[in-house]
Amino acid sequence: MSDFKDKVVYQIYPRSFYDTNGDGFGDLKGVTKKLDYLKDLGVDYIWLTPFFISPQRDNGYDIADYRQIDPRFGTMSDFEELSAEASKRGIGLMLDMVFNHTSTEHEWFKKALAGDKKYQDYYIFVEGSENVPPTNWVSKFGGNAWKYEDGLKKWYLHLFDVTQADLNWKNPEVRKELKDIIRFWKDKGVSGFRFDVINLISKPDSLENDYEGDGRRFYTDGPKMDEYLKELVKDTGIEDMITVGEMSSTTIANCINYANPDEKELSMVFSFHHLKVDYKNGDKWQLMPYDKQALKNIFKDWQEQMAKANSWNAVFWTNHDQPRTISRFGDEGKYWKESGKLFAGLIHLMRGTPYIYQGEEIGMLNTHFTDISQYKDVESLNYYNILIEQGKTKSEALKIINERSRDNCRTPMQWDNTKNDGFSTGEPWIEVPEFGKSITVESQLNDEDSILAFYKKLIRLRKENKIISHGNIKFFTDVPEQVMCYERALGDEKWVILGNMSAEKIVVSQDSEINQKLGGKRIIIGNYVNTGKYNGNELELKPFEFVVFG
Ligand code: GLC
Ligand code: CA
After folding, report:
1. Is the CB of 58 inside a 6 Å radius of any atom of ligand 1?
2. Model's pTM, two decimal places?
3. In this structure, which residue's CA is closest to atom 7 in ligand 1?
4. Catalytic choice (246, 331, 377, 379)
5. Which residue, 257, 399, 465, 545, has fewest beta-carbon neighbours within 10 Å?
6. Do 161 and 299 share a structural domain?
7. C-alpha dihedral over 506, 512, 515, 516, to 10 degrees?
8. Hey, CA dihedral for 162, 168, 173, 177, is it positive or negative?
9. Closest among 103, 94, 28 to 60, alpha carbons compared
């Protein structure tokens, strides 16, 4: 299996990237138009979120036809042009395979509903009485995870929206269909795949109520996961392509297998524990300031244990399902730039393949919308209603949605200061927020001190220094809570990475293990001392300062 250790991936949410025909909806031609920008940034791959035929209830994660392009995004020839132009620039395309479920508009599901037994077996249909769902499992988007079909007198499982019916992976015909879809896109010349919520595909044999949780412990990382992944990879011949699996509520032990080269499953995994450190009681819909110590502990565990097992992580702060990083962990005001650079640096110097989500590289911020009607995401709208039902006032509910909505990352890419920040000449499907409107690509392109310039520097650094791509990693625990600190090592070379995650000055004590390591070390990034070397004094980090010594 090839490794992708010195590569960097850029995630594009096409509907919000660039609109070329003024319909307010970003399109594939828009991605092609911006390839030079991505080439200049230095990324190796683009992961495109789904652009297949879909009713768009969940913005394309509800697929009705895996082999055709939704006309909103363009045509197959637009895709072929994008693929050819990307390849000219040395950029590969990764497509998003949503294989846990299909849209209920997919012809398989329609046939199932029409009574075709073969297709009923493509999904998880269970007979039962209309009043009692087969289990009490909760859908990830709110409400019970089963829907009753009157015509069939059966329930079907939907772990996500009611229009996203879970596929039955136990049925070999389903697995064959999905493998054919991979072969179809592989033949079109794509470079790799991202597999959506892939660790939910292996459902348990018996369906039980969950009296402790929402059901996820029964269907997450299920019994046949490794078997299904191995089969999928082997039968489609994608061992050497770049693949990443999205792992929902997973464990390190499971991910060690999924992303170990010897297992021939996936090149790498996304896990999300570090993005739950601001969930009060583990509940996404209860706010609390993020727990810095927990964040550091999670990275320590994942980074060190995956390294020990020779398994590989995808590293990232955000994606199309998450809030903006600076709004969440940094400072939207005075230290906007510093915090943007700090969090970028901390991720890019870790052990793993970094993923940059569109707009992150210029420091885009959360929406700060003032009315629920400005939100579009099905999850946000469902949970707004649930919060109101639970007794929250409208403004309390809106405050939670403002922090947690997936739309925070789905507003249009901010290119320049023309209409709609240069995203579209028409009416965008979701508005460009007033807040943070001046944060654009154009305003940073020629600024050496910009967040954008810093991302370019980090990508270049990875290409030039094997210690970043191939080095080992160790976290230091003997540091103030606000400081994240780790060491990378390759052969005799050692780098120490330090970041102050707070808006205060922090002193790292003189006798700490780190200070002793730094004596005489060069500064690779940052301007901590003028001499370019650590001068042996007490180490003081400015607000959100990021320094790499090597
Ligand atoms: C993944 C996607 C998310 C989608 C869900 C269901 O988590 O990233 O956007 O809603 O799967 O497909
Ligand atoms: Ca368009």
Report:
1. yes
2. 0.97
3. 197
4. 246
5. 399
6. no
7. 180
8. positive
9. 103
Q: Is the CB of 160 under 6 A from ligand 1?
A: yes
Instruction: Look at residues 172, 184, 147 and name the one whose alpha carbon lies nearest to residue 69.
Output: 184
Q: In what order do the strands lie in the sheet with 125-127?
A: 125-127, 154-157, 146-149
Q: Is 278 in the pocket of ligand 1 (CB under 6 A)?
A: no
- Rounded distance from Cα 406 to ligand 1 centre (Å): 10
State the residue range of the domain holding 112: 107-166
Question: What confidence tens digit (pLDDT) does each residue in 254-309 have?
Answer: 999 999 999 999 999 999 999 999 999 999 999 999 999 999 999 999 999 999 99
Which residue is listed with tokens 């990275």? 299
What is the DSSP code (8-state) at residue 472? E
Q: Smallest Cα–Cα separation from 423: which of 435, 440, 409?
A: 440
Secondary structure of 52-103 in HEC code, one letter for each residue: EECCCCCCCCCCCEEEEECCCCCCHHHHHHHHHHHHHCCCEEEEEECCCEEE
Q: Which ligand is nearest to the CA of 21?
A: 2
Instruction: Label residue 65 exposed, middle or buried (CB < 10 Å: 0-12, 13-18, 19+).
Output: middle
Non-local (6+) Cβ contacts of 297 within 8 A are none
196 is catalytic: yes
Q: For residue 505, what is the domain's CATH number?
A: 2.60.40.1180
Q: In the chain, how many domains are there?
A: 4
Those residues whose C-beta lies under 8 Å from the C-beta of residue 158, and which sit 6 or more positions away, are 101, 139, 145, 146, 147, 164, 165, 166
Pairing of strands 483-490, 493-500: antiparallel
- Which of 495, 339, 317 minimizes the C-alpha distance to 408? 317
pLDDT in tens, 194-237: 999 999 999 999 999 999 999 999 999 999 999 999 999 999 99
Whether residues 196 and 243 share a domain: the answer is yes
Cβ of 141 below 6 Å from ligand 1: no
**Same domain for 237 and 273:** yes
Q: How far is CA 505 from CA 71, 338, 497, 500, 550, in A?
A: 52, 13, 17, 8, 22
Cα angle 185, 189, 192 (rounded to 5 degrees) comes to 70
* Residue 51 half-sphere exposure toward CB, CA atoms < 13 A: 30
